[in-house]
# Entry
Amino acid sequence: MARRTPGLVGADLENLVNEAALLAARHNRDKISMDELEEGIERVMAGPERKSRLINDHEKRIIAYHETGHAIVAKVLPGSDPVHKISIIPRGHAALGYTLQLPEEDRFLMSKSELMNRIAVLLSGRVSEEIVFNDVTSGAANDLERATQTARQMVTQLGMSETIGLVKLGNKREEIFLGRDISEDRNYSEEVAYKIDQEVKAIIDACYERAKEILTQRRALMDKIAGVLLEREVIDAEEFERLMSEETAQEIPEVRIDKLPDNNHDFLA
Amino acid sequence: MARRTPGLVGADLENLVNEAALLAARHNRDKISMDELEEGIERVMAGPERKSRLINDHEKRIIAYHETGHAIVAKVLPGSDPVHKISIIPRGHAALGYTLQLPEEDRFLMSKSELMNRIAVLLSGRVSEEIVFNDVTSGAANDLERATQTARQMVTQLGMSETIGLVKLGNKREEIFLGRDISEDRNYSEEVAYKIDQEVKAIIDACYERAKEILTQRRALMDKIAGVLLEREVIDAEEFERLMSEETAQEIPEVRIDKLPDNNHDFLA
Amino acid sequence: MARRTPGLVGADLENLVNEAALLAARHNRDKISMDELEEGIERVMAGPERKSRLINDHEKRIIAYHETGHAIVAKVLPGSDPVHKISIIPRGHAALGYTLQLPEEDRFLMSKSELMNRIAVLLSGRVSEEIVFNDVTSGAANDLERATQTARQMVTQLGMSETIGLVKLGNKREEIFLGRDISEDRNYSEEVAYKIDQEVKAIIDACYERAKEILTQRRALMDKIAGVLLEREVIDAEEFERLMSEETAQEIPEVRIDKLPDNNHDFLA
Amino acid sequence: MARRTPGLVGADLENLVNEAALLAARHNRDKISMDELEEGIERVMAGPERKSRLINDHEKRIIAYHETGHAIVAKVLPGSDPVHKISIIPRGHAALGYTLQLPEEDRFLMSKSELMNRIAVLLSGRVSEEIVFNDVTSGAANDLERATQTARQMVTQLGMSETIGLVKLGNKREEIFLGRDISEDRNYSEEVAYKIDQEVKAIIDACYERAKEILTQRRALMDKIAGVLLEREVIDAEEFERLMSEETAQEIPEVRIDKLPDNNHDFLA
Amino acid sequence: MARRTPGLVGADLENLVNEAALLAARHNRDKISMDELEEGIERVMAGPERKSRLINDHEKRIIAYHETGHAIVAKVLPGSDPVHKISIIPRGHAALGYTLQLPEEDRFLMSKSELMNRIAVLLSGRVSEEIVFNDVTSGAANDLERATQTARQMVTQLGMSETIGLVKLGNKREEIFLGRDISEDRNYSEEVAYKIDQEVKAIIDACYERAKEILTQRRALMDKIAGVLLEREVIDAEEFERLMSEETAQEIPEVRIDKLPDNNHDFLA
Amino acid sequence: MARRTPGLVGADLENLVNEAALLAARHNRDKISMDELEEGIERVMAGPERKSRLINDHEKRIIAYHETGHAIVAKVLPGSDPVHKISIIPRGHAALGYTLQLPEEDRFLMSKSELMNRIAVLLSGRVSEEIVFNDVTSGAANDLERATQTARQMVTQLGMSETIGLVKLGNKREEIFLGRDISEDRNYSEEVAYKIDQEVKAIIDACYERAKEILTQRRALMDKIAGVLLEREVIDAEEFERLMSEETAQEIPEVRIDKLPDNNHDFLA
# Structure
C-alpha cells in the first residue's frame, strides 16, 4: 500500500486512515482491508461516490472519452505518474469522472519537461472531447484552470521562458503545484504582462498540440478503452496496462515550439 | 410532476413544496394538487403574481412580443429546454412577463453549441422588440447581463474561443451558469482584455444574428402567438406546441462566424 | 389626485401623505386638502420652500430661462412626462428653481427614443442659458450628471449602442433610472472604455443639438414664458399649456446621428 | 457689517460671533465692536495673527508682491469679489500673507467667465513673483491647488469644455467651490483622462497669460502697492481703492484660447 | 545657541532639551552646558552615537568621501544652509556618517533655485563615490529618496516645471519638505504621468551634473578634507571654513537644461 | 567562532545560542562545543536537518550540481562571502541542499559590483542544472526571487541603472537586502515601468551570462566537486578550498553590457 500513497503527507494520510476505518466499520470488519484503503484514497482525492446522480447516456459517453484522453496521454508521455484507476462513477461535489494518477515515489523537484507533460495530460480530456464529438463542453473548466496556473508559474516564478528570462514576476509568493493560487500584486509593466500572456499561451498551445497528436494517432485505442469504461464504469491499473500494451508502439514526431527555450527539445526525452 | 423539476435541487425543492402547501391551505384543500405545484414552481422561479400592476396597453404589447421571441427561438434551436409556459402576468419584483423553460432531465455538462443556443434564446426578447416596434426598451437588461456573462465564461473559463485558446483568464473562480458572477482579479494584459472583449462581442453578435434570422422568418407566427398571449395572458406547453406545429418547417441557412473556433460549425447541429 | 402620483411608490407615497398631514395641521384643518397634497408632492421631490434665500436679479433671470428651457423641450418632445409646474422659488438644499414633470401613468419600460428625449430635456436648461446669456453657469451640474448617467446606462447596460452591441459592460449592477449610481467594477479593456466614452458623448451631443434646435426655433416663446415666470415665480400646468398653445406648430427637421444604431431614426417618432 | 459676511453661513457665522465675543472679553468690553467683528472674520478665514513669526526681509518682499498680485488682478477682472484687505501679517498655520476678498451679496451660480477670472486671481500671486524676482517659490502651492481644482470641475462636472462636452466625468460627486475635493472613481478611458488633463492645462494656461498680461502692464502700480504694504503691513479697502484709482485705465487686448469653447469670448465681458 | 536651532520647532525643541538634560545628568552636572545642547541637536537629528560599530577601512573611506561631497557642494552652492559639522562616527539606526547643515534663520518659502541646490547637495555624496571609487554603493539610498521627493514636489505641487505648468497633480496633499510622503491618488492620465517622470529625471540629471562639475573641479580639496575626516572622524564649522578658504575661487560655467522652465537661468544666481 | 557570525545580530545570535545549548543538552554535555555552535548556525539559517526525506538518485544529482554551481561561482567572483560549507542534506521546510556563505566581517555598504556578483552567485545553481542536465527544475524558484529583488532594488532604489538615473521609484520603502519585499505603491508611468523591467532583465541576463561563462569553463571541476558531494553529502571550507586550488587559474574575458552604467566595467575588478 505504501506504493500508492507517496504523494500524501500529514493531514491527508490521517484523512485517508479515518475514511478507511469508517468504511471497515460499515462493512462490520475489525481490520482495515486493502479495498477499504483504496476507497479511502479516492474519497480523500475526489470525495464520496455519488451513484444516485442520473447522468444521461450522451453525457456518460463524453465523460468516458474525456477520462480516456487523460489516461492515454498520461501513459504515453514519459515521466507522468502511473494511472492507477479510471472511473466514470461521479464523486463528491464536482467530479463526474476521474483518472487517478499516483506517483511512485516522493518528488521534490519538477523539471520543465515534466511540467509540460503534466499540462499536456491536463488538456487531454478536452482534446478527446473535441476529436470524438466535434463539440466541446464545460467539463474541462477545472483542467484548464490547473493547466494555466502551471504554465503561468513556469513563466513568472520558475524562469522557464526564454523571453521572460530568469526574472521572478509578481510580488506575492504563490504556493507552487497546489491547486489554488493567491492573487498577486502586479509589479511589472503592461508590455511584460503581454509577454507573459503570450508565453503562457505558447506553452498551453504546444501542450495541446502534443496531446492532440498523441490521441489522434490512437483513435481506435480511445474507442476501445472508452467502450470498456462505459461498460464497467471503472478500469483498474492492471486492466489499463493490458489494454494499452495491445497497442503497437508508434513513431511520434517531435514537437518544436519556436517561442519556448531551447532546452525544450527534451520535451519527449 | 417529476418531469417538471429536474433542474431543481435541495433548497429549491423545499421552497417549491412549501409554496405549494401554502397555496393548498389557502384553497382549503388538505392535499397539494398539480395546479398548486405548478404555481409553486413559478413562484420559486419568478416570485408571486402581481396582477394589481397596471401596465399600459403599449407596454403590454411590447412584453407579449418580447416573451414570444424567447419562446419561438427556444423551440426552434436544437437542445434548448422545452417551453413550459409563456406568461405576461407580472411576477415578483421585476418580471413583467416570463417564458418558463424546464429541462427534461438533470444536466451536468454544457457544450459550446448549447451555450450559444442559450445565448440566442436570451437575446431573442430584445430582437423581437426591434423587429416589431423598431425601437428597443430597457426590458432586456437582465437578458443582456446573463447572455454577456455566459459568453464571457465561454471565452475566459471554458476555453471555447480559438483566439484565446485553452487558457483560463482571471484569478477568482466564478460559479458557472449561476445568475451572479463574482468580481474577478484581472491577471492578464490590456491586449488580452481587448481580445476577450472582441470574442465576447463576436459570440453575442453571432447569436443575435441567429435569433434575428429565426424570428424574421417567422413574423406571422410571432403575431399569432403574441395575439393569443395578449388575449389570454398565459399560454401553456400544449397550446404553444399546437401554435408552433401549424408552422411549415423552414430551411434555415447556416450561420458562419469567422472569429470563432472551427468546431462552431455544429452550431445548428 | 391619483393622476399626479403614478410615479410614486411605497416609501415615497408615505412621505407625501405625512408631509401633507403636517401641512394640514399647520393650517388648522382636520382634512388634507388638494393644495396640501400638491405641496406635499413638491416637498418630497425638491424639499421645502426657501423663500428667505436672497437671489440677485441676474441669477433670477438665469434660473427663469433655465427652467423655461426644461419645460419647453419637455412639452415639444413626444412621450415626455407632462409639465405640471414651473417654479423659481428655491427649495430644499440645492434647487434654485424646478420644473415638475409628472407621468400620466405608471411606466415599467423605457424605450431608446424616450431615454434620448429625457436626456434632451435634462440638457435643455443649460442650452437655454447658452442661447440667452452667451455664458454658462454651474446651475446645470446635476442635470449633466443625470443625463450622463442615463446615456451611460443606455450604452453599457441596455444594449442601445450599435458599436458596443448587446453586451453588458461593468460588473456591478446599477439601479437604472434612479438618481444615484454605484461605483462599477470595470471588467473591460481600455479600448472598450474609450468606445463607451465616445458613444456616451455621441448620445449627449445628439440630444444637446436636439434641445438647441428646439429652443433656438422658439426664442420668442422662451422670452414670453421666462417673463411670466420672473413676474409670478410659479407657472402651473394650465397656464403653461395656454402659453405653449399660442405658438404656431413648427416643422422640425429630423436629427441624424451616424454613430448611433439604425433604430435611432424614430428619435422623433 | 452685513455687507461683509454674505459669503458666510451657519457654522461659519457662529464661529465668527464666538471669536468676536472672545476678543471683546479680552479687550474688557461688554459689547462686540465693529473692530472685533472684522478681526473675527479674518480669524475664521485665515486663523489668528502670528506676529511673533520672524520672516526675513527677502521673504517679506516676496510675500508683499505675491499679495499685491492677487489684489490688482482681482480689482481689474470684472465680477471678482471686492478686495477688502491686503495683509502681510502671518496668520494661522500656513498663511504668510493674505488678500481678503468678500462678496457683495450671496451667490448661487458661478458662470464660466467668473470661474476663469477666479482662477486668474488665484494664479496672480505666483505671476507677480515671477515678474519681479525672476524666480518662483513654494508660496503658491495652495493657490495652484485651488486653481487646478476649479479648472478640473469646469471640465469634468460643469460641462464648460467644448472638447469634453456636456458629459459629467468621475463617479463620486465633489463639493463644488469648497477647498477640499474628494477622491474620485475614474469611470472613463485613458484617452478621455488625457483630454481632461489637456483641457485643465489649457484653462490654467489661458488664465495665467491673462494674469501675466494684467500685471506686466501695471509694474509701476505693483511697486507702489507692494511698497505701501511693506511699510504698513496692512492695506484696507479704501486705501486700496485710492491706490488703484490713480492708475490710468489701460486698453487690455482680448485673450483668445482655441481649445476652449466658443462662449469663451466673453472672458473679459 | 539660538543660531543653531532655527529649523527646529515644537516637539523637536522639547526632544532636544530632554536629550541635553539627560546628558547633563549623566555627566553629573546640574546645568545643561553648550556641549550637551549640541550633542542633543545631533541626537534628535541622527540618533545616538554608535562608536561600537566596526566599519572596515574601505567602507570608512567611502563614507568619508561621501560626506565630504555633501559638505563641499553645500558650501559652494549659493543659499544652502551652512555646514555645521561633518562626521563619520555612526549614529542611530542607519547613519554611517552625516553632514549637519543648520539654517541661519527660520525660512518659510523655498525658491526654485534653492530647491535645485538642495537636490544637488543631496546627490553629491553619491557623485563623490563615483568620482573617487569608480563604483557606487547602497549608501546613497536615503539621499536619492529625498532628492526624488523634492523634484517630484517641484513638478507636481509647486508649478516649477514649464512642461507641466501651474497645475497641481495628484489628489492627496503631501507635506512638503518633510522626509516622508503620503501615497497619492493619481488623478491624471498616463501621458501626464510620463511627462512628470521625464521632468523629475530632468531635474535630477541637471542637479547631478551640477554636483559632478563642482566636485570634479575640486578633486584635490576632496582628498584633503576626506583625509582630515578619516584622521579625526569629525570636522566642525570653523575647521571646515578654514579648509575651504584655502581653495582658489574657481570660475564655474553655467548649467543649461533645455527641458526645464526659462526661469531656470538663475540656478546659479 | 566570532569569525563565523559577523552577519548575525540581536535575535539571530540569541537563537543561535539557544539552538547550540539545546544540542549540547541533548549530547549530555554541560558546555557548548564548537560543533554545536556550527550546527546552531545552520539551524538558524536553514532549519533542522531532515535526513528522513527520501530523495531519489536523479534529484540528488541535480541538487548536488545546483549547490556546486553556487559554490564555484561564489569562490571565483571577487568580493563574495567565503563558502563555509556545501551540503545536500535536506534542512527545514524547503531546503533540499544549501551552500553556506559567511561574511568575514560586518558590512554596511554594498557596491554595484558586489551586488552584481551576488546575483550571479544566486543564478549559478540554475545555470549548473542547465549545463549538466539540459533541463531545468523548480529548485531555483527562491534563488530567482532573491536575484530579481536585488536587481530591482539596484534599479529603483539605489540609482544603479544609467537609463533610470538617480531617481527613487515606488512609494513605500523596501527593506534592502532582506529576503522579503513589501508591496510598493507605483508612482511612475507605464513607460518607466517598462524601462525598469528592461533594466532588471538586463542585469539578470548579464549576471546569468557571467555565471554560465564561469561554470562552462570549469565543467571538469563541477563534476569533481559534485562527485565528492554525492559521496559524502557535506563539504567543509577546507576541503572546498583544496578542491578549488587544484584548478588552474583561467583567463576570464570581461563581460560588457551596453544598457548598464559605464561604471559597470569594474564588474570583475
Remarks:
- Chains A and E do not touch (no CB pair under 8 Å).
